[in-house]
Amino acid sequence: MTDTARAAAPASVQPETTAATAPATPAPGQSVLVPADVEAAVHAIGDRARAASRVLARANRAWKDRALRAIGAALKENEAAILAANSEDLEAGRANGTSRALLDRLALNPARIDGLVDALETLAGLPDPVGTVVRGQTLPNGVRVRQVNVPMGVVAAIYEARPNVTVDIAGLALKSGNAVILRGGSAAGHTNAALLGIIRDALASVGLPDDAVQSVDAYGREGGNALMRARGRVDVLIPRGGRDLIQNVVLNSTVPVIETGEGNVHVFVDASADERMAVEILVNAKTQRPSVCNTVETVLVHKDSTVLPAVARALAERGVRLHVDGRTLAALPADVAADEATDRDWATEYMDLELAVATVDGLDEAIAHIRRWSTGHTEAIITNDLANAERFIAEVDSAAVMVNASTRFTDGGELGLGAEVGISTQKLHARGPMGLSELTTTKWIVQGEGQVRA
């Protein structure tokens, strides 16, 4: 840990609550109890973040871009230290029986660090969202009005076993003029501490307040609970992780929440789908990185499609375990094994090399299945029928809808946003990958020359 990171830590830190001693997740509506000293410490962090946010709000683009590039350079310079810290977290995760999917999310390597540096460089190259005029006009009485984008202020994020999120959110918050408070969880504790120190040092090196990026990880789960209750000090809270984490935040936070959702993602293979295209898209969507939320979890195949044998073989060759309905089982090649699917499979976000497959009579049945089981994240259709593609786009209500493309494109970096805070599955303010503009709100500016209302 750097000297800056040490300075940022509270003078008296209690050990993080362990899984064995931690209180159970509160029931919906149940009060979240937080020790007074932890609450006071988190409030102090919030107050420092508020002060830092005022500096960031008036920082120009060049200043913020300098900071982003300084963070990127510092990540490369300290790559060995980051990987060493990450190795400690991975070793502890394996010892604790952490799942393969979660270990994959937790793991950093030189290529992934390069990806974080590239994302910061991309952010530096994007326009500054602050000050963008959303709309404006001059009224008949001569009063000039305009609505402009302004920073949220203090953004908080609660996430688990995702050290890349530490860098992504810090970069996005910085570029959009916000201070950020992080709760990254114990699974990535060593990695996040190393990253936090590097980021704070980089901010200080360009003259920005290091309190623009802080963490409550030192206070464990109770610190996260206090963050959820820091209304007035935190302007918006974004949870990112599994269903239990997200629902805990949504149901118990008094701070306004932008809900990110789990990804029970579907792909419908239409009767007209090209076999080669279907194989390439589905192999990519399932196996390129199975532990993330934009990975396909259910494939729906038109009963008249002929691509199922080739798709099933290609997936099986890559170690994908299939869970299928009766009609699909009857159409599978003899050399492809599969389990019988139940309703639990249609509802499951596997985040692993497992896939549910059903045969449907047509587009109507596919859309009905998606409406019942989807989490509203991403759905795709593979088709050569333009009318079916247009119907799918119009009738499927998810944050991202794709035609003849892998679901893995639902990602801030892939969609040109530089990075993302998360993928929102709600419909208020932000939906889909949340980039710079989603971390701003608006302000009305009214300028007159002495006009009064009649």
How would you describe what is shown here?
This protein is α/β, with parallel strands linked by helices. Helices cover 41% and strands 17% of the residues. It contains 16 helices and 16 strands. The protein has helices at residues 3-8, 36-57, 61-77, 79-95, 100-106, 110-125, 163-175, 189-205, 220-228, 243-252, 275-287, 308-317, 326-331, 343-346, 363-373, 386-395, and strands at residues 133-138, 144-151, 154-159, 179-183, 213-215, 236-240, 265-269, 296-302, 321-324, 339-340, 354-360, 378-382, 400-403, 423-424, 432-433, 440-447. The strands form four sheets. It has a seven-stranded parallel sheet with strand order 10-9-11-8-7-12-13, sandwiched between helices. A four-stranded parallel sheet has the order 5-4-3-6, with helices on both faces. Strands 1-2-16 form a three-stranded antiparallel sheet, with no helix packed on it. Mean pLDDT is 91; it is low at 1-31.
